[in-house]
UniProtKB/TrEMBL annotation:
Keyword Hydrolase: yes
Protein name as it appears in the record: Hydrolase
Residue ranges of every copy of the Amidohydrolase-related domain listed in the record: 76-433
Organism: Sphingobacterium corticibacter
GO molecular function: hydrolase activity, acting on carbon-nitrogen (but not peptide) bonds
Keywords: Hydrolase, Signal
Pfam families: Amidohydro_1 (PF01979)
Keyword NADP: no
InterPro entries linked to this entry: Amidohydro-rel, Metal-dep_hydrolase_composite, Metal_Hydrolase, Metallo-dep_Hydrolase, OTAase-like
Signal sequence annotation: 1-19
Amino acid sequence: MKYLIASALLLANLYAATAQTKQVLLQNVRLLDHQAADFTAPMHVLISGSTIEKISSSPIAIQDQDVVKIDGKGKTLMPGLIDVHVHLVFGALTLPQMVTSDMSEEFLVQRVGKSAGDMLLRGFTSVRDAGGPIFPLKAAIDKGQLVGPRVWPSGATISQTAGHGDFRTPDERSRKFFGVVSRAERYGATFIADGRPEVLTAVRENLRFGASQIKLMAGGGTSSAYDPIDVTQYTFDEMKAAIEAAEDWGTYVMVHAYTPRAVQRAVEAGVKSIEHGQMLDEETLQLLADKGIWLSLQNLMDNNDNMDAQRKAKRKPVLEGQEKVWPLAKKLGVKLAWGTDFLFEPELNDDQNSYILRLQKWFTNAEILKMITQDNAELLQLSGLRSPYPGKLGVIEEQALADLLLVNGNPLKDLSLLANPEKNFLLIMKDGQIFKNTVGKK
């Protein structure tokens, strides 16, 4: 297939060792300790296969002459970065490309594959894809045909008619009344599902293809054409149907929602993760804290001149709300996760790391580093047995998965180091495989 040729070229252009089977010994590295909010004294870390086999303050003796030894010279070793709200497909393409392109498997792998590889080289070793035709891309990454982060896929978003995931163009009518499946549904971007039976089918279809969690649209959005930002979507019974179907498979439902009404209904139905929520009030945030529900938040950039007037108007209350929600959620003890949620603006992907720095308004550097590694990893593990990658992430400890970054500097003191991964990430490792190594190079 053509995409295999493109994949081979991509792999050749990246500093990757996808066939690496040797042990790796990292010597003289200082480990990020979340509990102490500090770095350890110089340590030695042995990686065997995909996991961290041994951590020692004393040199580790290795008999195997083929072991890859890397002297970290006191540099910082931290877990790989995790973004729990990405759209690998939607974020790599513009809206005109989405509308006009042939969204074949070959197209997705070729066009989006480069973007996935770039994301890994920015230090993001794991992501949760919050909706879209992700399965071919994930399969290519997992098989080593493409370079990219670990992907927790949601599959097609699930939306009611006139909901946030109703991507039909004005000339596309309802398949229920006219018998024609919309283009977005045909390409696996979304399922438009109304009523309990259709919702059950949509959830089970995603699970059939390998979804690790389910993405449901529970309220209006800023990038959709038909639904005002204030509307509540899906009845309680419809939402409950999705949650029951997901729980039968040992996983959970994440919902797109901004308003107190939408979020309170979702929580009552049994949702485990709220995506966005920038318009929430104190009562609803306290509900999330009391019930241990995750709030997966973003810190969006202000409107730009290229946005149409309708989207600017929809985003206004969201942008205003995020300045209040982040500090209030922290104060109330809500379980917070972080993601970027870039859509249809591929140029934003290069800013993914710098968006981490926007959290400094409300959090210490230690709190931010914990959120974008250990806390986000904890959210990923809600997938349980549906998680595509068994093992512990977000920490550096024995038997944890070897997703690691060697940083030239101390991000606890200078978080801006993360915003320049090309310069400051000397080593990038995912699953025990080295994808970048510039240690000791000028």
